[in-house]
Design goal:
Length: 390
């Protein structure tokens, strides 16, 4: 009797061992991780080696009859159904990867389901992977293909961006400046470049990594306004005097036949400088050349001699960094004031018969009147030099 009981217990133990004989599956050995692309733009992928998995467990994995196989899995093997039903996972990060980044494949498995329906014990742990071997992508810096163009005069110069459009990539960038006006030499202008499309799209088009950011430019080469006559060289002054005298001769050439020019004499200049520079101002400085003109009128009994004063002003005279002076002699202001002089003409044959007439001249009959009308009336706006000698 005792021997019979021992045999029964042995049979039960065998049966219990047979029921607990689950298949242990090491999942980590079937996962491979791969990173491709360029440094900072690496893309990670993973794969599960189903062929090796089937080879190792095709005769060990069986499906319990109680498991309701979904219709879409009916054509799959037992190993494939186990994988589809119980095994999954994902990477902690899969794009925009740099060399040295560490990513992790994290499993998400249905352990209980695998034991209950597939008699399998899933063994796994997170898989850490260090990114390496990504090549450096050639970079495209748009700020290497822009320059700054300066126009105007210190301290009211302006800046504009000039883009080298021989690089087709530049059409996908917007370049702006932090300051575009009110500039002087040695000021700092900051250019900022931003990408107008997605980085991935740019890389796909040009196989280059687009860079964005800032670049500083130092303002240079802007001319300054001349601030006094001592800064105007002799050759430039002679050029302005020649133009002024041509203007006066042109005016006198249209006189009536009774009017005669005797002499034109340069007697000095006024220099005016705007107290506060203004981009919209017609003149921020001006050199006014003053002339004394002597003329006479034919008159009945004796010539009428006339002395008057005329001014021609040249505005916005500038000086380059090398000291050379710039002036546009074809842009000028001249006298608009007029005055009249009486003279006599014969009315008919015979002595004592005459008529008084008025002849009009462009200019000022007195130097003080010129100074008052041309210069003093604007003193609140300008500093000035008086270099006129009567």
């Amino acid at each position: 009797m005792k021997r019979r009981i021992i045999m029964i217990l042995a049979i039960i133990a065998v049966m219990m061992l047979a029921g607990c004989g689950t298949t242990q599956i090491d999942l980590n050995k079937y996962i491979s991780i791969e990173v491709n692309g360029y440094n900072s733009m690496g893309v990670a992928t993973y794969s599960f080696d189903m062929d090796a998995f089937e080879k190792d467990y095709a005769d060990k994995v069986t499906i319990d009859k109680s498991f309701n196989i979904p219709k879409k899995m009916e054509d799959l093997s037992d190993c494939e159904i186990l994988f589809a039903s119980c095994i999954s996972g994902k990477l902690s990060k899969s794009d925009k990867l740099d060399n040295g980044d560490k990513i992790t494949y994290k499993w998400k498995c249905s352990d209980d389901k695998a034991k209950e329906y597939f008699n399998s014990e899933l063994i796994y742990s997170d898989i850490e992977y260090e990114v390496k071997g990504l090549t450096e992508m050639k970079k495209f810096n748009p700020l290497e293909h822009v320059s700054i163009e300066y126009t105007g005069v210190e301290p009211i110069a302006e800046a504009t961006v000039k883009i080298d459009n021989t690089y087709p990539e530049m059409k996908y960038f917007l370049v702006t400046l932090d300051k575009t006006s009110g500039l002087s030499n040695n000021d700092i202008v900051v250019a900022n470049a931003s990408l107008l499309i997605e980085k991935e799209e740019f890389i796909e088009k040009y196989d280059n990594l687009p860079e964005t950011g800032e670049k500083q430019f130092t303002v240079s080469g802007i001319p300054t306004y001349v601030e006094g006559t001592t800064e105007i060289d002799g050759d430039t002054l002679s050029m302005m005097k020649k133009q002024a005298e041509d203007i006066i001769n042109s005016k006198t050439a249209s006189w009536m036949s009774i009017s005669h020019l005797d002499s034109i004499e340069y007697i000095g200049n006024y220099f005016i400088l705007l107290k506060q520079y203004n981009l919209e101002a017609k003149h921020n400085n001006e050199l006014d050349l003053v002339y004394r003109i002597n003329a006479h009128l034919d008159s009945y009994d004796t010539p009428v001699y006339v002395t008057y004063y005329y001014v021609v002003g040249f505005p916005n005279i500038t000086k380059n960094v090398d000291g050379t002076v710039n002036v546009d002699v074809y842009k000028y202001y001249d006298t608009k004031s007029t005055f009249s002089v009486s003279y006599k003409i014969n009315r008919k044959t015979g002595l004592g018969y005459y008529v008084e007439k008025e002849a009009y001249f462009d200019g000022y009959s007195q130097l003080e009147e010129l100074k008052k009308g041309w210069l003093i009336s604007n003193m609140e706006k300008f500093f000035y030099e008086d270099n006129v000698v009567e």
